[in-house]
Structure formats: structure tokens, C-alpha cells
Design a protein that fits this description.
Layout (H helix, E strand, L loop, with lengths): L3 E5 L3 H12 L3 E5 L16 E2 L12 H8 L7 E3 L5 H13 L2 H27 L11 E5 L2 H16 L5 E4 H7 L9 E5 L3 E2 L2 H14 L3 E3 L4 E7 L2 E7 L2 E4 L2 E4 L5 H7 L7 E10 L9 E4 L4 E6 L2 E10 L8 H14 L14 E7 L6 E4 L6 E5 L9 H12 L15
Parallel strand pairs: 1-2, 1-13, 2-9, 4-17, 5-15, 13-20
Antiparallel strand pairs: 3-8, 5-7, 6-7, 10-11, 11-12, 14-17, 14-18, 15-16, 16-17, 19-20
Helix pairs in contact: 1-7, 1-10, 4-10
Length: about 425
């Protein structure tokens, strides 16, 4: 039976949810707090699809590493000091979740979801969606030999989970990327990873949805909800009430504000990330990479080269912190010595807020509090990677199918 699905959020998760609901014959409405020409987290990211990223953000060693980085203003991680009960409770839950047992539970699911998403990207490309999909893999570049050895242990875990991985020395790396000069000890190559253009992917989804009759409400704030017993009858917005059969909360880092109006507990912090896109790079790699020590992602996109990174926990603050950006710029010539810091002069940094749950797993599925509310948020740095599979899961949920318990939006209720 066809339903009217209202989705609060026009980022990659919201549009993917709308797309797969529409493909199943449902009528969809998307509302977003920003104008149509938006630049949120779904646009300026590194564009990577990463089956190699099967370890959740909350993992052993992350708390100690985060504390170490805290004292460097240009480091990959920073928490802005402030008194916030939400931040304190999130940090406590993050610490509690950073265990080997948690990783062992979550890794197979993250692996499966990323592989499924990769298949869906290939399917969408074969159907005529054009978003510059490149299926040549990803390499974790290691400047230091000890880092390469540590990443080699991760490669062993990856292979044990069925994720192909190959440890390469400096000579092998030069053969893999002959057009780029690298100052590295080596790298770990994940051939099943891929990359794409986020802008083009979002534009393709939006065009397909519009062609299928989707209704868009841009520049529209969610103010509350109209309740009818155990169901939500309509969403109160800055442009009036919008009724629907099913409500999908996919507001990214703003989802907890919407959840609060629904009497739901959805622990989350916004992790600000930055990127800079060099339009005429001195050298252009063929595959995407991550500078392992610096935690900087590098992606070739239609002849340009995007450098992105950092995780800045500073609330719903979209200001650009220049010292964080400087950390990305300084990392580039350390790994790619042909590049200079001056190559980034005049480039306007992009920033976006990633929705981070305390255990590093998305919130996906129905909440027991309401009979017709589905949550789809909290994907941290894997929103683009998990976009299609998350959208398909929302559509499955709409049609009465159950989702994995590890993703339950009620797990902190």
C-alpha cells in the first residue's frame, strides 16, 4: 500500500531514503532547514565509499589518542571546552563503548553495510545516474614505518573479515600511483573501496526524485509535531503543518533537536570537518587515499583534488577555525612533497557537521515511542559511504521489515 513519507532532512541520508521509498511506490516529501543550493556535510566531504572502515569511531585507544591530540590546535581531533551536560554524557558513553567487544560486535555489520552500499552505487551508476564513480580502491598512506606495521595488523583483521587488503612498501606504492611523488614508508591498499563526486550524486538524486513527483520544502525549519495518540499526524514547520503517514527523522547533526520534540533521547555530537579542493593540482593521483598519521583524506574528483579532515566537537557551530584548516594544509607536502602550502592560498575552506553517535554506529529504524516515526541519522564520517544502504533500510522499515538491533534508535532510551 502506498504511503506518504515525510523526511526531515535533505542531506545524503534523507535523499537516499526518499529515493528508495519512491522506488517502492511511496509518495515522498522532503523538508530541509537550508536553501536548495545548500553546502552541508553531504557536499564537501571526501566522497569515499569505504568497506575498509569496519571499525566504529568508538574503539580501544581512541580516548587516549583524542586526549593526546587535544593539546595540538592543528591536530585531527579537538573538543571545544564548554560546560554542556549533553557533551559530558556523550563523552561518558563514548568511553564506555570504546571496547574490543564493541568493535567485534559492530565490525561485521559495518563491513556488510558498506559492501551493500557499494553494490547499490554501482547499480545506480548502471541505471544512468552520473556521479563519477571510480572503483579503483583506497590506500592508507603511512609516512612512518611503525605506522605501516600498525596498519598491517588492521589489514590482517580486514582479510579475516573478508575485506581484501594488501600491505605495500614505498616501491610498490610508487608503482600503484606512478603520477604522484610520495614521501611515505608504504601503505595499505584496499581494492574494494571507491570514490565519487558527492555534489553530482546529490544532484542526480534530487533530479530523479523531482521527476518522480517528490515534493521539496527548502529553507523550512522543523518546529514540532502534531501528536495523535501513539502516532505523529503532521510536522509543524516554519511554513505550516505538513501531514504524512510516516515521518523519517534524517536531520543530520540537527536530529537531536527534532528528537527532543518527540520525547526521544538521541545522544549525538556534531563533529565538524573541513575540506579544501585544489582545482589545478600539481599532480593528480588515480585513487583516493588517507594520510594515516595526519588523518587527512585525499580524493581526486573530476580533475580536482580534495583534501579533507579533522573532527572538531564544538556544538552546532559552523564557524571555520583557521588552525584546524592549517593542519590539513601542512599535511599535504609531508606526504606529497611536490605540493606546497602555497597551493592552498585563496581556496575557501568548506566545513560541515557530521552527526556522531557515542558508540560510532548510526541510528536506524523505528522507535518504540511512536508508531510511525523512523530515525535515520548518526552516521558520523560514513554518511556518504552508507547513504544508499541507509536509504534502502528506511524503505524496508516503511514496509514493515526489521533492521539490525545494533542500529536501534532506542539503544540509549
Amino acid at each position: 500500500m502506498s504511503k506518504h513519507i515525510l523526511i526531515t532532512g535533505g542531506g545524503v541520508i534523507g535523499l537516499c531514503a526518499a529515493y528508495y521509498c519512491q522506488q517502492r511506490g511511496h509518495r515522498v516529501t522532503i523538508i530541509d532547514r537550508k536553501p536548495q543550493q545548500r553546502d552541508g556535510c553531504s557536499y564537501g566531504n571526501a566522497g569515499m565509499v569505504v568497506p575498509s572502515h569496519f571499525i566504529p569511531l568508538a574503539a580501544p585507544g581512541m580516548v587516549a589518542l583524542g586526549l593526546k591530540w587535544m593539546w595540538n590546535p592543528e591536530s585531527p581531533f579537538y573538543i571545544k571546552p564548554r560546560f554542556s551536560w549533553e557533551l559530558l554524557t556523550w563523552a561518558w558513553k563514548f568511553w564506555r563503548a570504546s571496547t574490543k567487544r564493541h568493535v567485534d560486535q559492530c565490525a561485521p555489520l559495518l563491513r556488510d553495510l558498506n559492501f551493500q552500499s557499494r553494490e547499490l552505487y554501482e547499480e545506480l551508476a548502471s541505471q544512468g545516474h552520473e556521479f563519477s564513480l571510480v572503483t579503483k580502491g583506497l590506500v592508507m598512506l603511512c609516512k612512518e614505518q611503525h605506522t605501516l606495521e600498525e596498519e598491517g595488523h588492521l589489514a590482517e583483521k580486514a582479510r579475516a573479515l573478508g575485506v581484501p587488503a594488501e600491505v605495500l612498501d614505498a616501491k610498490a606504492m610508487a608503482a600503484l600511483e606512478p603520477d604522484v611523488t610520495m614521501a611515505v614508508a608504504g601503505g595499505v591498499y584496499f581494492p574494494k573501496d571507491c570514490h565519487l563526486s558527492p555534489d553530482r550524486f546529490m544532484a542526480s538524486l534530487e533530479a530523479s526524485l523531482a521527476k518522480g513527483g517528490a515534493e521539496f520544502h527548502w529553507d523550512t525549519e522543523v518546529l514540532g509535531f502534531v501528536r495523535e495518540g501513539s502516532r505523529i499526524a503532521a510536522v509543524k514547520t516554519s511554513r505550516g503543518e505538513l501531514p504524512a503517514d510516516e515521518i523519517v527523522v534524517a536531520g543530520g547533526s540537527w536530529s537531536p533537536l527534532q528528537a527532543r520534540e518527540l520525547d526521544l533521547r538521541l545522544p549525538m555530537q556534531a563533529g565538524k570537518g573541513y575540506s579544501l579542493t585544489v582545482t589545478k593540482p600539481r599532480q593528480l593521483p588515480h585513487i583516493c587515499s588517507i594520510f594515516t598519521e595526519a588523518r587527512v583524506a585525499v580524493t581526486p574528483m573530476d580533475g580536482t583534488l580534495r583534501f579533507g579532515g579533522t573532527m572538531e566537537i564544538a556544538g552546532l557551530n559552523e564557524d571555520i577555525t583557521s588552525r584546524r584548516v592549517q593542519g590539513i594544509i601542512k599535511a599535504a607536502p609531508k606526504y606529497y612533497p611536490a605540493f606546497k602550502e602555497e597551493d592552498f592560498t585563496g581556496i575557501q575552506p568548506w566545513r560541515g557537521l557530521r552527526p556522531c553517535s557515542p558508540d560510532g554506529m548510526p541510528y536506524m529504524g523505528r522507535t518504540s515511542r511512536w508508531g510511525n516515526v523512523i530515525i535515520a541519522t548518526g552516521h558520523s564520517m560514513m554518511g556518504l559511504s552508507l547513504g544508499p544502504v541507509s536509504g534502502r533500510m528506511v524503505a524496508q522499515c516503511v514496509d514493515g521489515e526489521d533492521l539490525p538491533a545494533l542500529l536501534s534508535p532506542d539503544r540509549y532510551a
